[in-house]
Amino acid sequence: xxxxxxxxxILKLTDLDMYSNKxxxxxxxxxxxxxxxxxxxxxxxxxxxxxYEWQPKDEKEVATYILRNTRRLKKATFSTKxxxxxxxNKLEKRRRMLDELATVDKASNSCHFVFESM
Length: 118
Prior knowledge:
Residues 38-116 form the FBD domain. InterPro entries: FBD (IPR006566). 28% of the residues lie in helices and 20% in strands. The protein has helices at residues 38-42, 57-69, 88-102, and strands spanning 10-14, 46-52, 75-80, 112-117. The chain is globular, with a radius of gyration of 15 Å.
């Protein structure tokens, strides 16, 4: 997808844990590209990720890859799913996840992070 969009400036990802209209989980597997797509190197300025959880290995790998290879990234917004009341252990886990995400070595020094709950 990224190779087919060489001038992409805004990338919006929505909950990678998707289901078909029949309720079956859609299988997806992240495969890191052999070469960094042109849009990441020269054009992408904004990433918006809705429903980000960092839990599945694929989500962590995709987010890290994008942050490490996007040279012109100005804003990265990660919206996480709400935590149910009484689940304090999940709140601590989420804080550690967001701290880890914020410390990923980024290609862009001017990237502004936004973390929010849906």
